[in-house]
Design a protein that fits this description.
This protein has 339 residues and is of the alpha/beta class. It has two domains: 221 residues, P-loop containing nucleotide triphosphate hydrolases (Rossmann fold, 3-Layer(aba) Sandwich); 59 residues, no CATH class. It has eleven helices and nine strands. A hairpin with a 5-residue loop joins strand 5 and strand 6. The N and C termini lie far apart (49 Å).
Length: 339
């Protein structure tokens, strides 16, 4: 039996992505955020970046730097410990992950190491193709990190590199158009509540916000003068007393779901649907209209990057198991041909 609850009407503390060019001020903005009087303690988990010791001299900055051995497991343990730390004087703690770009590079390098161990040739100077199952493993590990941030009852800041790249057409060929691209795991902009882009020092734009207090239209770049995270939190109304509520989030569990699927009763044995649920069902179907997956797969089947994009999109839109299996099979076939 499914239980339902009323909405709280309050936002959770957001996960914010700070995506910027080199030396644009991402880490400085994070350190300055720790000085906000809205924050209790700040925990800084650096990945592949210099520790921000010098930023401790910023007036009011208060943060503790996680020490880890550079492995995924050690980084995840550090994040979990930070998320579990008690509030200070009733104020939420701030988690900083610096940077998501480096973290995804770590997981990608892991996949390459494992692919090389499977190599069929004896050439140590040649990397083996990374199969779809290894990319899935890397994505699952990434999602474990995101789930820790979602469970944290406080704000989180995630930094990433912002690159200018060439736009590809449907066939995967370069065009003359340029665009900004966040260099990280492809679902990162969907996983966060706010996207802040910093293309150069002193330039800051809000390009996405899941908030009733800030209207950012699709493809809009909302400039923020004299940007700080404290001012953004205040603009969103998060500094007011009793303004937030804990994030309500149900993690997905594919293993448990697959096991339950084998035990589901036949359609004829299931209880009849309550007619009063018809409106909610129709709304759910409307919100989750699926694209023509077969057509998209046909366009992407010969391009690994396009296949990975398509797989991420299918998962984000909760496509059917058949669709995801077909995309995965196409990726395996492409990897086999490349080998």
């Amino acid at each position: 039996m499914t239980n339902f609850r009323e909405p709280t009407g309050k936002p959770p503390w957001p996960i914010t992505l700070l995506a910027g060019a080199e030396k644009a001020g991402k880490s400085y903005a994070c350190a300055l955020a720790s000085s906000s009087d809205l924050i209790g303690q700040t925990f800084w988990i650096g990945v592949g970046e210099d520790d921000p010791d010098e930023y401790g001299a910023i007036p009011g900055a208060r943060f503790r730097i996680a020490q880890h051995d550079g492995t995924y497991r050690s980084i995840l343990v550090g994040l979990e410990a930070a998320a579990a730390a008690p509030r200070v004087d009733g104020k939420p703690n701030l988690l900083i992950l610096d940077s998501a770009t480096r973290l995804w590079e770590l997981l990608s390098d892991e996949a390459q190491v494992l692919a090389n161990k499977r190599r069929k040739n004896n050439n140590p100077d040649q990397d083996s193709p990374i199969s779809m199952d290894l990319w899935n493993r890397a994505t699952d590990r990434w999602q474990s990190v995101v789930n820790v941030l979602r469970r944290h009852d406080g704000p989180s800041l995630v930094t990433a590199r912002l690159d200018v790249v060439t736009v590809l057409d449907d066939a995967g060929k370069p065009t003359k158009e340029k665009t900004s691209k966040i260099k990280s795991q492809k679902s990162l902009p969907y996983d966060v509540g706010i996207v802040v882009e910093m293309p150069a020092r002193g330039e800051t734009y809000i390009t996405g916000a899941r908030s009733l207090k800030m209207d950012v239209r699709l493809d809009q770049r909302k400039p923020m003068k004299d940007f700080t995270m404290h001012s953004l939190w205040t603009t969103l109304g998060l500094g007011e007393a009793d303004a937030t509520a804990p994030r309500q989030h149900a993690d997905v569990n594919a293993t448990a779901s697959a096991a339950e699927g084998r035990q589901q009763p036949a359609e004829s044995q299931r209880p009849a649907a309550n007619p009063s649920d018809a409106g909610a069902t129709a709304l759910s179907q409307y919100r989750h209209q699926q694209p023509d997956w077969a057509e998209l797969l046909e366009k992407a089947k010969n391009n690994r990057e396009m296949l990975l994009d398509l797989l991420a999109k299918a998962r984000n839109m909760h496509a059917s198991t058949e669709v995801i299996d077909n995309i995965t099979a196409a990726g395996k076939s492409l990897a086999a041909r490349a080998a």
